[in-house]
Amino acid sequence: MSEVTTDDVERRSLVLVVEDEVFIAMELEQALTAGGFHVQGPASSVRDALELLEEERPYAAVLDFNLGREKVTPVALKLQSLGIPFVLASATAATELAHYDVLAGVTNVGKPTNLHRLVEAVRALNS
Length: 127
Hints:
With 127 residues, the chain is of the alpha/beta class. It has a single domain, classed as Response regulator (Rossmann fold). Helices cover 43% and strands 17% of the residues. It contains six helices and six strands. It has helices at 6-12, 22-34, 46-55, 73-82, 94-97, 115-124, and strands at residues 14-18, 38-43, 60-63, 66-67, 70-71, 86-88. Strands 2-1-3-6 form a four-stranded parallel sheet, sandwiched between helices. It has a two-stranded antiparallel ribbon with strand order 4-5. Helix 3 runs parallel beside helix 4 (73-82). The longest helix has 13 residues, at 22-34. The radius of gyration is 14 Å and the shape is globular. This is Response regulator. InterPro entries: CheY-like_superfamily, Sig_transdc_resp-reg_receiver. Residues 14-126 form the Response regulatory domain. It comes from Rhizobium acidisoli. Keywords: Phosphoprotein, Plasmid.
């Protein structure tokens, strides 16, 4: 039986944060860190998020839907293809999210975000 290393534990708790608003990104990062997770990013654009995914695979992700003028759907599709679960932290209405197959039915903790609910939603992703 192999030993579990610190790197293994960190990888299992690594959460990609994709949020373009700096103060909100910092708030999400602080809440996740306090909840025992390690944060990858935050990424403020689709390109930045995809680059981070090329560098390292997270355990899970927290995505905002609107990133400036772009939508997060390419990141969600990449996460889906890699089998990485994610939640949304977005003010976007469920009816609009339902137009995107990759986002339909995904947990959205909303904005303003209840940070306790966010941490619990991320914990629930792989349980």
